[in-house]
Amino acid sequence: MQKQLLTLSFFLLLSTMGWSQLNMSLRSNLQYATDLNDVWGYAAPDGSEYALVGARNGVSIVNVSDPDNAEEVAFIPGQNSTWRDLKTWGEYAYVVTDQSGSTEGVTVIDLQNLPESVNFFHWTPDLPGLGTLNRCHNIFIDEFGYAYLAGCNINDGGMLFIDVFSTPGTPIYAGAAPNRYAHDVYVRDNKMYSSELTRGRMAIYDVTDKDEVILEGVQTTPLEFTHNIWLSDDSNIAFTTDEKPSAPVAAYDVSDPDDIQELDQYRPTITLNDGVIPHNVHVWQDWLIISYYSDGGIVVDAARPNNLVEVGNFDTFFGAGAGFQGVWGAYPYLPSGIVLLTDIGNGLYVLDVNYVRACYLEGTVTDAISGAQISGAEIVIVAEEANVNYSRLDGTYGTGIATAGTYTVEVLKPGYLPFTAEVTIDNGVLTILDIPLQPLPTYNKNGLVVEEEVIVPIPGAKIILDNGESTFEFIANSSGVFLIEGVYEGNYDVFVGAWGYEQKLISDLPIVNNDDLTIELGRGYEDDFAIDLGWATTEDNETRAGYWELGEPNGTYSGGSTSNPEFDIEGDIGDQCYVTGNGGGNAASDDVDGASVTLTSPIMALASTYVDPVVEYNLWFFNAGGDGNPNDQLEVIVSNGTEEAVIETLSSSESFWRERSQIILSEFITVTDEMHIRFVTSDFDPDGHLVEAAVDAFAVTGELLVNTDDLVLNVDWSVAPNPFKAEVVLNYQLPVWNGNGQLTVVNALGQTVATQSLNAQQASVTLGANWPRGIYTIKMEVPGQGTAIQRVVKQ
């Protein structure tokens, strides 16, 4: 099965791709003609060292005694399986597979005659009251020689106990744990740490008596998909992984299983929030050796388990995106100290590791004025090594890097001035830096959202202020009024929208005082999804995944093609759109599965708004994989309240946003004031295809109907002085006088402060003597002729 050692051309390729390698160096790479899975190691009595490499079609045994020349010496063929797990006891290896239809049970490999030959057999006993053992997901062998089989086809996936020490090479069934599905397992001192993936928890059992297993404690892990657990050298700390996009490796104090305490979480900084998935964590002398799929192999210093610091990494994967690709397994326990990594598509890697203790930086972040503890402050050591950490709920923080030196520390927290300090840090040394942050001033503003030209309040309008660090959201009341409270000084992008009106982006609005703010929106239906304007998401009861979500899209990839979009449509407001499932990670992890999902607009009064409305939007639709014959589609359906029509159907798969759709509704349906539009896609079992859809930049265009209330009054008028301090004089002359008219004055909150009837075709009117300082809108209305407005400022 050996393919070849890493070639010079491959080395050159790696050097051009920014190969990540901190305190880890490549000794050799053995490639295979098939995908790999897990890896374990074996040290023979004569001192020779071997890698036991799980492959899709068997087990490869590789002599790594000379780390620079890894050489396959034996191959044990097996049934095709994505999953293989391997462990050793004495001079035997024990292997399990977990592919549907597998019948190998436990494969027992006799390693005594390496490197000349190996013997093996498949142990598939018919266990009393349970049935025939055909497959398992994982195996662990404790210090006493008991093998623990997790996720098998019997006992509902609950743990099985196997004696592999009494008669080496001949397993003996020793009992079963309660039938709670376990995905993986770690055991020491007769305490079993079970990764109960489907329950999302770490469960600790006393297995001293294999006939009476006792549950001692449970702990839900961060993303509730507990994949594997490993214990610290002193048995007090458990480290867990959740096999989900952007999940952390978490550390827990398990010294009292009845009172488990979370200590810290680690995520790779350089790919933070990119959907990278952790797989397995191992512990050697309080370093964590983690297989982190598309981030490769990572070494984390866990000597201070409340401050997990990355001190080594080696990336073997160069494809786009995250997902279930890259490093599957890691093994750090050979006597020579080399580390073995298996990359699913790129083979076996033999590495040297320079294990160093981190340079620890810890302290407390507080408000410099009040002394209050500040959580969520971002702390960065400005260094070549990517790093970022955040203060905890009690204001404490822990961070660090692998390389000693003098560095600048930068601290950011919305609402506070940036903080910088210079620190000198050293390996294995704790440096304390307490951080007092100076609060920024805050301002309050009265705001008003009105329809442009006619200055009619827009109730329920949504307003978002965002400066990249802080976000504030407000909703206008029934009078179109909103109050901006406690907004930090700075420049903000202001997103404003209301259903039935055009949206607006005000860029870099300075918030430096308490002045009032008035925002005008034009009539019309428009939604770039920067603001949630009330679209409804629904799904069938059978739907399992891929629900419509509003957010910034997370790209996923399948066969080199983008399946879920990575960005929204270019040129619209904001960076959000509606997508079907936005979990990132593997292309199949959050696409539409099981049945239909539907995205429905709010009701649109189109008949009274447009002459001949045109619906516009941009679509994304990807359909692939599964049985190789994808047959799904994305439908766009319009309803007028009594009937409906399909206005567009996509069935071809593309990895890009489609050209803008422009649909004249009257060609499909009678236009009413009860219109809504639906976007529907599905993936019905048993087809099981990849289905992803997205919608962005929705709008209704066309000529607006003229509302008689919107007529602009033809009047010659002026106000002076403006701004004014005492009074303002309004002079006007109307071209036609019909004996009726009125002046109305409103303040910035939309409150009426003055009204006055017009008694002549032309006149001068004095206003404002008793008004407080502020911005005012003067509205002149003449029935049948229209409305005109002027704005004045009293200083």
Walk me through this protein's architecture.
The strands form 17 sheets. Strands 49, 51, 54, 56, 59 and 61 form a six-stranded antiparallel beta sheet that branches. A five-stranded antiparallel beta sheet has the order 1-3-32-31-30, with no helix packed on it. Strands 2-29-28-27-26 form a five-stranded antiparallel beta sheet, with no helix packed on it. The chain folds into five domains: 2-353, YVTN repeat-like/Quinoprotein amine dehydrogenase (Methylamine Dehydrogenase, Chain H, 7 Propeller), CATH 2.130.10.10; 359-437, Carboxypeptidase-like, regulatory domain (Immunoglobulin-like); 449-512, Sandwich (Immunoglobulin-like), CATH 2.60.40; 536-701, Jelly Rolls (Sandwich), CATH 2.60.120; 711-794, Macroglobulin (MG2) domain (Immunoglobulin-like). The chain is built from one helix and 68 strands. By secondary structure, it is mainly β. The termini are far apart. It is 1% helix and 49% strand. The longest helix has 9 residues, at 8-16.
> Largest sheet, if any?
6 strands, antiparallel
Count of DSSP H/I helices: 1
Describe the global form.
elongated
| Separation of the first and last Cα atoms | 85 Å
Q: Which residue ranges are poorly predicted, with pLDDT under 50 across at least 5 consecutive positions?
A: 1-19
CATH C-level class of the largest domain: Mainly Beta
Strand pairing plus helix content: what structural class? Answer: mainly beta
Number of strands: 68
Count of discrete structural domains: 5
Helix content: under 10%
**What share of residues are in beta strands?**
over 45%
CATH architecture of the largest domain: 7 Propeller
Radius of gyration: 34 Å
Mean pLDDT across every amino acid position: 92
Give me the CATH fold name of the largest domain.
Answer: Methylamine Dehydrogenase, Chain H
